[in-house]
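Reopening this ticket.

The earlier resolution said the output was attached, but the attachment link was broken on my side. Pasting everything inline this time so it's all in one place.
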Amino acid sequence: MELFELGSYSVNRVGFGAMQLPGRGVLGPPRDRDQALSVLRRAVEAGVNHIDTAQYYGPDVSNDLIRDALHPYPDDLALVSKVGARRDAKGGWVTWDAPEDLRQGIEDNLRSLGVDRLAAVNLRLPDGAGPPDQKFDKQLSAMIQAKEEGLIAGVGLSTVTVGHLERALERTDVLCVQNPYNLLDRSSQPVLDLCTDYGIAFVPYFPLGSAFNATNPVLTHPDVTAAATRLGKTPAQTVLAWTLALGPNVLLIPGTSSLAHLKENLAIADIELDPDTKAALDALG
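Inline output:
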């Protein structure tokens, strides 16, 4: 696999996202705990050394599975989490992003993963967040303080605009940015471009379309299915290969609770899109 420098880590560009390890709706234990543990172990055995997670996946479920499957962790394994949200008593997603909440979220991740420091933690802004303001500055201060105290090796951002990223870069290095991005939704292209200019890792979430929608217009798009047929690959593999080709700083974190799907996801590193296929997919944006 190709590598990218994520702070002090050299990570493979195809990593693993832990969001699909808990039960339905990212809530509660997995349907098959033994298989979830096997998926994590097999991913690392296959060369994955970048795992994305969050304490509120479950909550606690993803982090507990990662710890139980992999602790003590390989020295080269970059664990990246996120803060800014939590789950309520009914499993709903709730904004939890006051500076003291962010600090508590970082400490919760450290506790549940069983580590003293994380490779990075992303400050996750709510969807549709307004321009950077005093609240954002205070949130950044909490993240920077955690970095200065050695709790996190790098500051990340998630669901941000160019304005947020530029404001953050005035105050600190930014290790990674997680924003929604896929074939049919390229609204984060300006953020990706700025990340590329600064050598910042761009980690697209929902590259196959939202996991919470009943239908998936990305994977069912006729041009995608036609390209997959020509390549002899699945639509998901085809879309992920296109996403990986966006730039050397693009890191993928496809998630699954299936060993078969894990094998398919990891195989995308070896897929090369021919010029005609790439041009056809490029034209969908």
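Reporter confirms the inline version is readable. The first helix runs from residue 33 to 45. DSSP finds ten helices and eleven strands in the chain.
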